[in-house]
């Protein structure tokens, strides 16, 4: 949760064009219904915690905690508009359009699912509105040449690199017994990008990929 809180706080560093006394409104987009609803609810709770830290004075060692409001904007307060995409990119697009056009948010934050983040952030990019992403890890999200998209977490390429560093270290101490790998991933943007990255890196590291299996994201058991 602390990473999410800091991610929200980092959002405010991209809002310098605001007028000095103007309050800051942030659109927060997460899955509040569907299979990972609890993740979304926990994320929104973290955002609300960050809002309290920023809007009020706290004796804690975190950015923007000491002062009440945003010191760089004459003490302006922040507020949030929360949207639920339910894990569906088309819903995320609609919610983002509403937040930008009706709610007049100054920045967007979310959206956990890489597929939703990828689709909805295009709306913000066209509008010139910053989108700060704290947890979507598809490598493609930061290779689109966007000016207003910022990710504050490692992506799957970096996670996969660490995984193979572990396997190589294990091999160096155990006679190189691991020579083949099997890859299983869900069929979303995140899963497909992650699986593709793992397959590429496996070959680069000298491992034979025996199987690469995609499964539907809503599958409840992978026994078969």
Termini Cα gap: 35 Å
Q: What is the CATH architecture assignment of the largest domain?
A: 3-Layer(aba) Sandwich
Helical coverage, percent range: 40-55%
CATH superfamily of the largest domain: Response regulator
User: What is the residue-averaged pLDDT?
Assistant: 88
Low-pLDDT stretches: none
- Count up the helices: 6
Beta content comes to 15-25%
Q: Globular, elongated, flat, extended or rod-shaped: what is the shape? A: elongated
Number of domains: 2
What is the top-level CATH class of the largest domain?
Answer: Alpha Beta
Order of helices and strands: HEHEHEHEEHEHE
Strand segment tally: 7
Radius of gyration, whole Å? 20 Å
Q: What structural category arises from helix and sheet content? A: alpha/beta
């Amino acid at each position: 949760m602390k990473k999410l809180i800091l991610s929200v706080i980092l959002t405010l560093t991209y809002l310098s064009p605001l007028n000095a006394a103007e309050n800051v409104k942030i659109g927060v987009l997460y899955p509040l219904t569907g299979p990972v609803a609890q993740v979304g609810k926990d994320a929104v709770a973290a955002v609300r915690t960050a809002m309290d830290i920023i809007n009020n004075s706290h004796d804690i060692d975190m950015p923007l905690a000491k002062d009440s409001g945003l010191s760089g904007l004459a003490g302006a307060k922040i507020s949030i508009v929360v949207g639920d995409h339910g894990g569906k990119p088309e819903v995320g697009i609609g919610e983002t359009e509403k937040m930008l056009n009706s709610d007049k948010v100054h920045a967007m934050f979310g959206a956990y699912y890489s597929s939703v983040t990828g689709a909805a952030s295009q709306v913000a990019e066209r509008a010139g509105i910053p989108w700060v992403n704290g947890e979507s890890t598809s490598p493609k999200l930061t290779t689109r040449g966007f000016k207003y998209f910022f990710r504050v977490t490692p992506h799957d390429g970096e996670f996969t690199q660490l995984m193979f560093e572990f396997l190589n270290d294990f091999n160096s101490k155990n006679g190189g017994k691991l020579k083949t790998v099997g890859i299983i991933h869900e069929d979303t943007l995140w899963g497909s990008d992650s699986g593709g990255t793992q397959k590429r890196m496996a070959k680069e590291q000298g491992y034979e990929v025996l199987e690469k299996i995609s499964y539907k994201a809503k599958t409840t058991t992978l026994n078969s």
